[in-house]
Amino acid sequence: MNVIAAKIAICLLCFAFLGLALFQKKRIAALAEGLSAPVWVGLLCFFFRLIPFSIVFLALGIHPTSDVNGFWQMATQAAEGKLVYRDFWSPYSPFYSYLLAVGAWLWPNPRVVVLTMIILEAVAVLASLSYFKKIIPRSELFFRALLYFLLPGSLILCVIGAQEDIWIWMFFVLALLVRRKTGSTVAYALILALGILTTKVIFVLFLVPLFLIEKNKIGFLWPLALVGTASLAILYATTGTEFLQPIGEADTLRAPNLVSVLNPWMFNHLGMGKGFWNWIGLLATVLSGCLVALDRRSEPFEVHAARIFITLYATLMIVQQSAYSNYLFIFLLPLTLAFLDFGNRKVVLLFFLYNVVCTIHPSYWWRAGMPKYYQPADVFSGSTALIDYSLQLTIIILTLYFIRVKRFEG
Fold first, then answer.
1. CA-CA distance, 209 to 207, in Å (whole number)?
2. Would you give the end-to-end CA distance of the chain in angstroms?
3. Using one digit for the tens of pLDDT, what is the confidence trace for 204-254?
4. Is residue 410 part of a domain?
5. From what superkingdom does this record's organism come (predicted)?
6. For the segment 61-112, what is each residue's pLDDT rounded down to a tens digit?
7. How far apart, in Å, are the Cα atoms of 199 and each of 246, 309, 362, 409?
8. 338 Cβ partners below 8 Å, 6+ apart?
9. HEC-encoded secondary structure of 180-203
10. Residue 279 within a domain
11. How many domains would you assign to the chain?
């Protein structure tokens, strides 16, 4: 349980820094006033990502574990020129391993995977500041960027876990910024297509409600269809049906989700683990995004699209059996920058708790033997089971709470 203890210690340290930042908001805003967005994000990344990285992986000599080792294997094999899916297994989109391979060429060490995640997270934050600058005052946006870097969810999932989930949001924001600058819906759609080919299959789900709010539907649809058709044809010709490996991840049973929480109270009559729940989860996820897309059309596009994004992926996190609470990293950045009232003490405390339970639960659940609950007695079978179930239930409740949170209007 050393990893869990370390995560708890990091969470407590983050809580202290967050409290100090909220208390010194005016001074921090004044400090950031004369800085450009790239300089501000660069400073935040240096102090709250590169320094922790140096302490953990260089000074203390700790070796990356868990997902990082899997990412490193994919990166090294891609760097050797091997073909994804055919020559090595990958649960990610085809370009993912080759992007990591760039780092493997520059620094043949698993730590470069973490460094790659840190760099691309900084790109996502910088792009997000530009994305939201029309609707949120500059000083407020810069301060919220600081709060994001201080959150235990972002710090642990990026530096310790080296998770790539934030890339989904990054590619969407980069696509929109390109359309802002060029006015081209085609370029916008092509970058979204690149995002699908580089991240995860679940990126596709966001495109359905995004299509509903898109005015130039033909210009949006045909580049995606063209790239998608060509990609599938090439993948099938080179790997056969092995390119379906990412879809196979849906059969991996994880927690927490609504089924895992409700199952013991239904005495295992929900069919936990059955394939039909995967389809129900996907349908519920897309439907949640579409309902938001059809609602609140009076909101600015940036807010509307971000709200759809948060709702869709937060829903995915708690309805899909193969999802787990690391998915918080998909929507944590837009949620922090545009949708929370950090002047509300209740919201701040609940949001911090949400970060803590989402980052601790995967480690706790895995070390507890990935427990499953078939009847109420299983929940109360021991302290380990009770703690795990309580964490799961807390994540579900808080996810539902933050899905419905009102956007910040400063």
1. 6
2. 42
3. 999 999 999 999 999 999 999 999 999 999 999 999 999 999 988 877 889
4. no
5. Bacteria
6. 988 877 899 999 999 999 999 999 999 999 999 999 999 999 999 999 999 9
7. 11, 15, 21, 32
8. 132, 135, 136, 144, 302, 303, 306, 407, 408
9. HHHCCHHHHHHHHHHHHHHCCCCH
10. yes
11. 1
What are the helix and strand counts (H, E) for the chain?
21, 0
| Euclidean distance between CA atoms 199 and 166, whole angstroms | 9
Helix axes 345-367, 383-403, angle to 10 degrees: 140
Nearest CA to 365 out of 387, 381, 394, 395 is that of 387
**Locate tokens 């870097």: which residue?**
149
Supply the range of the domain harboring residue 277.
2-403
Which residue matches tokens 């080759």?
Answer: 98
Which residues does residue 88 pair with via DSSP β-bridges, in sequence order? 84
From the list 335, 327, 289, the residue with the least C-alpha distance to 308 is: 289
Cβ proximity of 207 and 192 under 8 Å: yes
Please choose, from the candidates 300, 356, 255, the residue with its C-alpha nearest in 3D space to the C-alpha of residue 15: 356
Does any domain span residue 409?
Answer: no
Does position 312 have pLDDT exceeding 70, yes or no? yes
C-alpha 248/C-alpha 226 separation (Å) is 24
The C-alpha atoms of residue 94 and residue 197 are separated, in whole angstroms, by 6
